[in-house]
Amino acid sequence: MLGATTDLLRLIAVPALGWAAWRDVRTRRLPNRLWTPLVAIGLLTLVVDAVGHLPVTTVDDRLFLVRVGVSLLILVPLAYGLWWFGGVGGADAKALMTLAVLFPTYPVFYLATDAYPLVATTLGVFSLTILTNAVLVGLAYPLYLGARNTLRGDRSLVMFVGRRTDVSALPTEHGRLFEDGEGFTRHGLDIDALRMYLRWRGTTLPALRAAPERHRDPESIDGTSDPTDGAVDAGDVGGGAAPSPADLDPDFDADYDDPWAAERFLDDVEGSAYGTTPETLREGLGVVTTRETVWLSPGVPFIVPLFLGLVVALTYGDLLFGLLRALGVA
């Protein structure tokens, strides 16, 4: 009875993580206060379930402790390690840690004639099932991008990891440019860093594109403003049309000590503009001021497949285990 109650209480994670995924896609910003009540619920339900397995006398009691240990002592450090090495963002790591606390063991829900989840693993660590589901869901996204780009006629070396985007739409986009002045690159300008730069200069993307030669001159900066953190809703950096040939100056390639004032900008923000270097910023500004469209990494946060992995886990169960069992391996 207590197990059924705690499992129902854990379902609060579904709307909470769904909202987090939606907000992260729109703004790439999540408040830290989101995770505290979820972790508190996870600890409360864990304590209640643990009391039901005391004293530890049966195989089921020992399995419960093993599963909780795997979830807390392996999944939580793994999430932290992925964040530390840059594999996932901070919010993604916190979401995975929270799920490890909330769902160390498989919940059970009875609906009509079936018990859900339908497919459970032998190990029985539910947070691990959520993670493997999320990885499999995430692997499907490059296939979607490839199909989308093929149908649109956008074929390139990066068609499975990026999408062609109008430069005028960049002020409300997220991700990283897959282009620089030389061609395709994995280390293009981060769009949040672009917004930071525009706010720091007190200008907009249309103004930048209308007179790139003037903005390239570091002496054109009279004063600077708060760059913010590059969030979409923190100021106007609106889109605009490409510059006409009349707007371009023959001295566009003039040799300045600090073109675009890139070094000054990064010094002002203490070099923390999402790993942007002066050269990366200059290359990116050259791209967005001279082209109509660019290849952009979508930068989908891992919390999105993590949410989908949770939903699939609560209904179907473990995708990988189900596949292996269908192949006769598990």
From TrEMBL:
GO terms for molecular function: aspartic-type endopeptidase activity. The keyword Membrane applies. Residues 211-249 are annotated as: Disordered. Keywords: Cell membrane, Membrane, Transmembrane, Transmembrane helix. Its main location: membrane. Residues 226-235 have a biased composition (Low complexity). Residues 12-141 form the Prepilin type IV endopeptidase peptidase domain. Pfam families: Arc_PepC_II, Peptidase_A24. InterPro entries: Preflagellin_Peptidase, Preflagellin_peptidase_C, Prepilin_IV_endopep_pep. It is a multi-pass membrane protein. Residues 291-319 form the Preflagellin peptidase C-terminal domain. One of its GO terms (cellular component) is plasma membrane. The chain crosses the membrane at residues 34-52, 64-83, 95-112, 118-145, 300-324. It is found in: Cell membrane. This is Prepilin peptidase. The lineage of its organism: Archaea, Methanobacteriati, Methanobacteriota, Stenosarchaea group, Halobacteria.
